Amino acid sequence: MPEITIKYKNLKTLQALMDIAKYFDFTITTPAKRTGKKNALPIDFAEKPDVTALSGIWKDREISLEDLRQKAWGDRL
């Protein structure tokens, strides 16, 4: 589905667009909540990641680095 971005200065404009959307069968979605930081990720847990949560993720699994690369990149290697 094609998408466009519309920037508006006041909420009356957004309300008018939402009213028009009902008649022309298109949807309006709002962006993720910003934290105020420039280029901030809209992921809450990324603020203070806990890398210890991943310890042992590959324990007792028979997988090699080459297998991981092949699954991630496929024929693009």
Structure write-up:
This protein has 77 residues and is mostly helical. It has one domain (11-76). It contains 2 helices and no strands. The longest helix has 14 residues, at 11-24. The mean pLDDT is 78.
In short:
The chain is an all-alpha fold and 77 residues long. It has helices spanning 11-24, 65-73. The model has no long low-confidence stretch (mean pLDDT 78).
Key terms:
77 residues, mainly alpha
**Terminus-to-terminus distance:** 30 Å
The structural class is mainly alpha
What's the rounded overall pLDDT mean? Answer: 78
State the helicity in percent bands: 25-40%
Shape: elongated
Number of domains: 1
What is the strand content? under 5%
How many strands in all? 0
What's the helix count? 2
* Secondary-structure element string: HH
Write the layout of secondary structure elements.
Layout: H1 11-24, H2 65-73
